[in-house]
């Protein structure tokens, strides 16, 4: 039900290049029409038009797509080979440049910003609260409670407990703290879906082993469960003395501090669901035959189920403000008749053909009434390593960070502050719960009056605001330095991503670690999955997979930035390569009475786009303006990329003018300097063209790599070696003369030297931000 067809993601750079290619096509048609017009439409002019279209077809950069795709593959390889971000996988090789154009970063909380490794921190009984420093008191009370019941066991393997007897004989009497602690710990130790697992002692290769081969010691036991919260609770009960030692489908065994084994028969289990937000279990104590229904869940689900109390809501809020995940634990004692009646109705509901789920839920709800509130537990989910500096770096890089989580408002706010997503000194506007259009209007007006404050909103309020005031809400939220959406459903997360894309037109990135984040990851322009405790659904559905949140900083600021800058330089150079030769063809045709005759033929045209210029042009994928360490130290450099200045109409027009200037100089120079034979024009102009291309690559490069120098020399060597074989295009004796050398050198210098001077002056008078750092 959660599957949706993921869209094919196309990078912003590819869309921009498509627009420029369309402009080049129009230029090709216009140039061909101009040439035919200057011919005077004499003879079969339409034939000349198609000849000119073919002659100038080099204006269309057909090799651009091949070069770019090879470049993208190279960037992906560099990302996966980076030792500073081990375990990173590039799953979508078409959008590495997107990592350098991001404005909005939408992240999950549990398992993404936090480790999803739970540690038990707090037990609250209503009148008394225990923290990490007072856990030894719980241990002592539990030990005393079980040691008092030991004499009454009289040889039995299990013991009954005084608190149970006290409750059954006099339920109105207020219980002692010791008995309440005992009941609470026992409830936590029984109400779960955790299974203890023991490793076999036999050889690793043996699959079959007897029970004697198993080591039942505490050191060899590990707990397995679908939720790390449950494992943390069971590990805590073990630490205070009540240990879960065995569990199968029908029974559970606990070991008391004194070493006794208590056996409980599991009669029914009601698993946790995202709708009910609670789970329950009905057990029978084998020693006393007492039947008890235990239940635990979120405070919103449990507050209506437990008996009236005046502390639960307040204490849940207090714990949430400390960043703890809260669970409410309750119980209800059942008589044999009550249980028998429930079981009959439950089985009947499970057999019904129509509305089975609703009927089963209704029967279970009949038990969930006036339950005795036992305790409130608080579990801490610790932040991942280096989350704070990573978020700080991303904020300095100009990214706006939104946290979308299913957790409570207070817990989400606390984690947002502890991770420095929201500064502790920063004003925070908590959006009051709204249910109607009027309330949403009032709350939006209150929010509009605040400036530069973080927004915290729940999923329900968000739904109402988007229903009535979508545009106004998104406009206001986009101005916030940080936004926290709590109690978000998976579909809501994806909806928020799409809203940002529609209303801002900016690039979005979604980060998550679980199956509930998949829809958000697929909806975003760039999806990053983290391999965590919740499986690999997010990692496999994402475009990029990382092992830790802190790796995202380097992935964006270093690899995203360099991928975009390199692809921009590469694509513009490939366009320049086609434009310059088309300019030369246009000049040549104009001089010779607008004849539709090719300037270069056969292998020269093939060689020009391949062996003579391909390696140096492609070596631009190794170029970098600043070192990775510098990019990490100054994330502000990333801000420039969102403006798209590396590839824009302005830079494109500059390259067009360079191509026209160089093409004109090369062709006119060759025509002025050539002697008696026309073959000399081809030799001089083509040699000067190849040298100009190699020098232009050298001019574009910002940081030299040894492979770049090899590519330049290899291409030059290939051209020089091929001169000996291309007798039909070149006059070999003429090439060997000094006249040829000085003419080629003169034309090349005139075509390139002014550009070198202009580049030098620009760096001196208006240096780019990165050059200030590198100097």
TrEMBL record:
<feature type="transmembrane region" description="Helical">
    <location>
        <begin position="574"/>
        <end position="596"/>
    </location>
</feature>
<dbReference type="GO" id="GO:0006897">
    <property type="term" value="P:endocytosis"/>
</dbReference>
<dbReference type="GO" id="GO:0005768">
    <property type="term" value="C:endosome"/>
</dbReference>
<feature type="binding site">
    <location>
        <position position="516"/>
    </location>
    <ligand>
        <name>ATP</name>
    </ligand>
</feature>
<dbReference type="GO" id="GO:0005524">
    <property type="term" value="F:ATP binding"/>
</dbReference>
<feature type="region of interest" description="Disordered">
    <location>
        <begin position="146"/>
        <end position="177"/>
    </location>
</feature>
<dbReference type="Pfam" id="PF00702">
    <property type="entry name" value="Hydrolase"/>
</dbReference>
<dbReference type="InterPro" id="IPR032630">
    <property type="entry name" value="P_typ_ATPase_c"/>
</dbReference>
<dbReference type="InterPro" id="IPR036412">
    <property type="entry name" value="HAD-like_sf"/>
</dbReference>
<feature type="active site" description="4-aspartylphosphate intermediate">
    <location>
        <position position="108"/>
    </location>
</feature>
<dbReference type="InterPro" id="IPR001757">
    <property type="entry name" value="P_typ_ATPase"/>
</dbReference>
<keyword id="KW-0445">Lipid transport</keyword>
<feature type="binding site">
    <location>
        <position position="108"/>
    </location>
    <ligand>
        <name>Mg(2+)</name>
    </ligand>
</feature>
<keyword id="KW-0812">Transmembrane</keyword>
<dbReference type="GO" id="GO:0016887">
    <property type="term" value="F:ATP hydrolysis activity"/>
</dbReference>
<dbReference type="GO" id="GO:0140326">
    <property type="term" value="F:ATPase-coupled intramembrane lipid transporter activity"/>
</dbReference>
<dbReference type="InterPro" id="IPR006539">
    <property type="entry name" value="P-type_ATPase_IV"/>
</dbReference>
<keyword id="KW-0547">Nucleotide-binding</keyword>
<keyword id="KW-0479">Metal-binding</keyword>
<feature type="transmembrane region" description="Helical">
    <location>
        <begin position="652"/>
        <end position="672"/>
    </location>
</feature>
<feature type="binding site">
    <location>
        <position position="108"/>
    </location>
    <ligand>
        <name>ATP</name>
    </ligand>
</feature>
<feature type="transmembrane region" description="Helical">
    <location>
        <begin position="678"/>
        <end position="699"/>
    </location>
</feature>
<feature type="binding site">
    <location>
        <position position="110"/>
    </location>
    <ligand>
        <name>Mg(2+)</name>
    </ligand>
</feature>
<feature type="transmembrane region" description="Helical">
    <location>
        <begin position="706"/>
        <end position="726"/>
    </location>
</feature>
<dbReference type="InterPro" id="IPR023298">
    <property type="entry name" value="ATPase_P-typ_TM_dom_sf"/>
</dbReference>
<dbReference type="Pfam" id="PF16212">
    <property type="entry name" value="PhoLip_ATPase_C"/>
</dbReference>
<dbReference type="InterPro" id="IPR044492">
    <property type="entry name" value="P_typ_ATPase_HD_dom"/>
</dbReference>
<feature type="binding site">
    <location>
        <position position="110"/>
    </location>
    <ligand>
        <name>ATP</name>
    </ligand>
</feature>
<feature type="compositionally biased region" description="Polar residues">
    <location>
        <begin position="146"/>
        <end position="170"/>
    </location>
</feature>
<keyword id="KW-0067">ATP-binding</keyword>
<dbReference type="InterPro" id="IPR018303">
    <property type="entry name" value="ATPase_P-typ_P_site"/>
</dbReference>
<feature type="domain" description="P-type ATPase C-terminal">
    <location>
        <begin position="540"/>
        <end position="767"/>
    </location>
</feature>
<feature type="binding site">
    <location>
        <position position="406"/>
    </location>
    <ligand>
        <name>ATP</name>
    </ligand>
</feature>
<dbReference type="InterPro" id="IPR023299">
    <property type="entry name" value="ATPase_P-typ_cyto_dom_N"/>
</dbReference>
<feature type="binding site">
    <location>
        <position position="109"/>
    </location>
    <ligand>
        <name>ATP</name>
    </ligand>
</feature>
<comment type="similarity">
    <text>Belongs to the cation transport ATPase (P-type) (TC 3.A.3) family. Type IV subfamily.</text>
</comment>
<feature type="transmembrane region" description="Helical">
    <location>
        <begin position="732"/>
        <end position="758"/>
    </location>
</feature>
<keyword id="KW-0333">Golgi apparatus</keyword>
<keyword id="KW-1278">Translocase</keyword>
<keyword id="KW-0813">Transport</keyword>
<dbReference type="GO" id="GO:0006890">
    <property type="term" value="P:retrograde vesicle-mediated transport, Golgi to endoplasmic reticulum"/>
</dbReference>
<feature type="binding site">
    <location>
        <position position="407"/>
    </location>
    <ligand>
        <name>ATP</name>
    </ligand>
</feature>
């Amino acid at each position: 039900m959660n599957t949706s067809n993921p869209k094919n993601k196309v990078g912003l750079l590819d869309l921009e290049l498509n627009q420029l290619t369309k402009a080049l096509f129009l230029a090709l048609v216009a140039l061909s029409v101009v040439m035919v017009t200057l011919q005077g439409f004499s003879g079969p002019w339409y034939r000349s038009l198609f000849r000119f279209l073919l002659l100038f077809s080099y204006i269309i950069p057909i090799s651009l797509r091949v070069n770019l795709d090879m470049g993208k593959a190279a960037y992906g390889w560099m990302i996966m080979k980076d030792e500073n971000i081990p375990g990173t996988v590039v799953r979508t090789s078409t959008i590495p440049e997107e990592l350098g154009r991001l404005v909005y970063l939408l992240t999950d909380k549990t398992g993404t910003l936090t480790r999803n490794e739970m540690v038990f921190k707090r037990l609250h009984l209503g009148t008394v609260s225990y923290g990490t420093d007072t856990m030894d008191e719980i241990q002592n009370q539990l030990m005393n409670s079980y040691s008092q019941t030991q004499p009454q066991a009289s040889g039995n393997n299990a013991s009954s407990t005084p608190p149970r007897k006290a409750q059954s004989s006099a339920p109105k009497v207020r219980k002692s703290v010791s008995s309440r602690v005992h009941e609470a710990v026992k409830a936590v130790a029984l109400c779960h879906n955790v299974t203890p697992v023991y490793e076999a002692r036999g050889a690793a290769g043996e699959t079959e082993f007897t029970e004697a081969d198993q080591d039942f010691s505490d050191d060899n036991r590990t707990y397995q469960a679908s939720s790390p919260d449950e494992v943390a609770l069971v590990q805590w009960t073990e630490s205070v003395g009540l240990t879960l030692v065995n569990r199968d489908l029908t029974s559970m065994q606990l070991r008391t501090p004194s070493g006794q084994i208590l056996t409980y028969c599991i009669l029914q289990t009601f698993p946790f669901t995202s709708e009910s937000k609670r789970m329950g279990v009905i057990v029978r104590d084998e020693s006393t035959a007492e039947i008890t229904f235990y239940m635990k869940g979120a405070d919103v689900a449990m507050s209506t189920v437990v008996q009236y109390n005046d502390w639960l809501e307040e204490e849940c809020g207090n714990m949430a403000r400390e960043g703890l995940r809260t669970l409410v634990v309750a119980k209800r004692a059942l008589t044999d008749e009550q249980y028998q009646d429930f079981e009959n109705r439950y089985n009947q509901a499970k057999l019904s053909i129509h509305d089975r789920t609703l009927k089963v839920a209704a029967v279970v709800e009949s038990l969930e009434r006036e339950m005795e509130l036992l305790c409130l537990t608080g579990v801490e989910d610790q932040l991942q390593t280096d989350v704070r500096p990573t978020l700080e770096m991303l904020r300095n890089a100009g990214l706006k960070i939104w946290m979308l989580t299913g957790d409570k408002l207070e817990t989400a706010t606390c984690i947002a502050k502890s991770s420095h997503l929201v500064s502790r000194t920063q004003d925070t506007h908590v959006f009051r719960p709204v249910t109607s259009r009027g309330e949403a209007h009032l709350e939006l007006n209150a929010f509009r009056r605040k400036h530069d404050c973080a927004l915290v909103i729940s999923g329900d309020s968000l739904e109402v605001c988007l229903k009535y005031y979508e545009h106004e809400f998104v406009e206001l939220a986009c101005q916030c330095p940080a936004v926290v959406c709590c109690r978000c459903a998976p579909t809501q997360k994806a909806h928020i991503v799409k809203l940002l894309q529609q209303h801002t037109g900016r690039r979005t990135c979604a980060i998550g670690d679980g199956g509930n984040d998949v829809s958000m990851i697929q909806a975003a322009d760039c999806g990053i999955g983290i391999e965590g405790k919740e499986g690999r659904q997010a990692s496999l559905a994402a475009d990029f997979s990382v092992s830790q949140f802190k790796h995202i900083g380097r992935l964006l600021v270093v690899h995203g930035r360099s991928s975009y800058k390199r692809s921009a330089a590469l694509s513009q150079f490939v366009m320049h390569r086609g434009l310059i030769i088309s300019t030369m063809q246009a000049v040549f045709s104009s001089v010779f009475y607008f004849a539709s005759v090719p300037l270069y033929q056969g292998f020269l045209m093939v060689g020009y786009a391949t062996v003579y210029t391909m390696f140096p042009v492609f070596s631009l994928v190794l170029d970098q303006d600043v070192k990775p360490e510098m990019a990490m130290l100054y994330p502000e450099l990333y801000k420039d990329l969102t403006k798209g200045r590396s590839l824009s109409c302005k830079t494109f027009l500059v390259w067009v003018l360079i191509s026209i200037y160089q093409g004109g100089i090369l062709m006119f120079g060759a025509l002025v300097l050539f002697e008696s034979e026309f073959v000399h024009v081809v030799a001089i102009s083509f040699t000067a063209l190849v040298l100009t291309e190699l020098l232009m690559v050298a001019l574009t490069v910002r940081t030299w790599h040894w492979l770049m120098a090899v590519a330049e020399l290899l291409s030059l060597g290939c051209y020089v070696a091929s001169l000996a074989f291309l007798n039909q295009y070149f006059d070999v004796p003429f090439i060997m003369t000094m006249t040829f050398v000085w003419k080629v050198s003169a034309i090349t210098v005139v075509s390139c030297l002014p550009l070198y001077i202009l580049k030098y002056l620009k760096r001196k008078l208006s240096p780019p931000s990165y050059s200030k750092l590198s100097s």
